[in-house]
Write a structure and sequence with these properties.
The complex is a heterodimer. Chain A is an alpha/beta fold. Chain A is 36% helix and 25% strand. In chain A, α5 runs parallel beside α6. The radius of gyration of chain A is 19 Å and the shape is globular. In chain B, α1 crosses α4 and α7 packs antiparallel against α8. The termini of chain B are far apart. The chains are: A alpha/beta, B mainly alpha.
């Protein structure tokens, strides 16, 4: 992939662009001058050892955390920064609220609202953030819950649902905000093995039937290989190697990638 | 010395009237403490580090000194500096401040008990800070705070006898007065203890019911 793109993105270019993005915690550099482009409708998987910065890519794109250097562009406009005079300055909360609604995120720990039912979880933000009326929000939420196979549990609280069921509701909740991009952060890592499949099936159908751009951090190598357009191997806050799933997972060139894949495949 | 029922019934009206004052003092004091606790909490989370630090120190100071000493300072010492307050006003200010510091800790603990992931989910759903607080964070913090809040309601109630020392006409003060008038202490003090028990026990039971009801309303299996 070409990392020498011009600094200002074209409107019909990649939907996400990381340009020279650095994120550090004190002396620890988690993302090191990262350049990463995601095309419209592309499904990109991020793999790598823990501490390689893969989750941080999602977290800074969701604007859960600020970056120390560089700029992230979203859909042709800067996301982490806002225009000021001729340059850019760090985005304020108001600017972020206007721009980050194009992104949805699903978390490893689901993070459903425990005091709300599955349905309430899915209508809360559409009503209060998008300003939808309740009837419309509920009928859309029920459609989404049906899509993830959770319509029958719409009036249950999360504490009554299994991990896999909670995660499917969390996917519906994120989709209810009509994001252009979905970020999936190790969405099966907290699940019991027997329910991982049901969540992967939902993601599979999302990828096939909806034109969503998806960025997925995962440890499920088989799934990444099956579903991704591209796989990025992260090491030390950088993309050490990337390519099609067959290239990267079948015929890795980088020593680090080889070592990592060996270690992962041995563990399985 | 044996128990005299005729004397018991003779002083009952005065004791009941004093019970009203005790309840009034506890409830007003509690209401003030609930608000003061919130103010103390918020003043420790401003963007100005100096204010946060100073308020933190003030809270620690109030928490670490006895209620009775604070009461005497407000009622007996403050007038020597020209601040003259009635016994009731002194009592309500002192209780409000003293228990407000405890309640601010209860609030703080309950907010910290809400997982970080809840804040992140709200942010990922692009919810405003206000919505995040009122729709997601506070509803989850409240059940955590409830037992502590209930304990301090009963705690304030049981500390009201201290107000007798500055002349607030509550139960203990009335029992003292009756003892001094009649030289009979058995019945008045026994009645004080009994009345406190009769109010504390059902209140504690009611609070536990409330905790269960709140948990159930939020879908927790309790």
């Amino acid at each position: 992939m070409d990392t020498q793109n011009p600094q200002t993105p074209a409107a019909d270019g990649p939907i996400v662009q990381f340009r020279n993005v650095t994120k550090s915690y004190g002396a620890l550099t988690v993302l090191d001058k990262l350049d990463l482009d995601i095309a419209q409708n592309e499904m990109v998987s991020i793999i790598g050892p823990s501490g390689s910065g893969k989750t941080t890519v999602l977290r800074v794109l969701m604007t859960l955390e600020t970056i120390n250097d560089g700029v992230i562009y979203l859909d042709g406009a800067p996301l982490t920064h806002m225009p000021k005079d001729d340059g850019l300055e760090v985005a304020n909360e108001k600017y972020l609220r206007n721009h980050r609604s194009k992104i949805g995120m699903v978390f490893q720990q689901f993070n459903l609202f425990p005091h709300m039912t599955a349905l309430e979880n899915c209508v809360e933000a559409p009503i209060n953030v998008l300003g939808m009326n309740r009837d419309e929000a509920e009928s859309r939420a029920i459609d989404l819950l049906r899509m993830v196979g959770m319509e029958g549990k719409k009036d249950e609280h999360p504490s009554r649902l299994s991990g896999g069921q909670q995660q499917r509701v969390a996917i519906a909740r994120a989709l209810a905000m009509r994001p252009k991009i979905m970020l999936l952060d190790e969405v099966t890592s907290a699940l019991d093995p027997e329910v991982i499949g049901e969540v992967l099936n939902v993601i599979r159908s999302l990828n096939n039937e909806h034109n969503l751009t998806m960025l997925m951090v995962t440890h499920q190598m088989g799934f990444a290989r099956e579903i991704s357009d591209r796989v990025c191997f992260f090491y030390d806050g950088k993309i050490a190697e990337q390519g099609t799933p067959d290239q990267l997972l079948g015929d890795p060139q980088n020593e680090r990638t080889k070592q990592f894949l060996h270690a992962v495949l041995d563990a399985n | 010395m044996e128990w005299r029922w005729d004397f018991t019934f003779e002083i009952l009206p005065r004791m009941l009237w004093a019970t009203g004052n005790t309840l009034l003092a506890a409830l007003i004091g509690y209401a003030i403490a609930l608000v003061v606790g919130l103010v103390f909490l918020l003043l420790q989370q401003t963007r100005y580090r100096l204010i946060n630090f100073l308020v933190r120190e003030i809270v620690e100071f109030i928490r670490s000194t006895p209620l009775l000493v604070q009461l005497f300072f407000v009622y007996f010492v403050a007038p020597q500096f020209g601040i003259i307050l009635s016994a009731w006003t002194s009592a309500m200010i002192t209780i409000g401040l003293h228990f407000g510091t405890y309640l601010s800790e209860v609030y703080r603990g309950s907010l910290n008990a809400v997982p970080k992931g809840q804040w992140e989910a709200c942010r990922a759903l692009n919810m405003s800070a206000t919505r995040t607080y009122f729709r997601v964070i506070l509803p989850q913090a409240f059940p955590v705070a409830l037992p502590g809040m209930g304990n301090y309601l009963i705690g304030i109630f049981k500390d009201t006898p201290m107000l007798a020392t500055i002349g607030v006409a509550e139960l203990m003060h009335t029992a003292n007065a009756l003892g001094a008038e009649t030289y009979r202490y058995l019945e008045p003090y026994t009645m004080v203890g009994f009345i406190f028990l009769m109010i504390s026990l059902p209140t504690a039971a009611g609070l536990r019911k409330l905790e269960t009801a709140v948990a159930r309303a939020q879908g927790q299996n309790k």
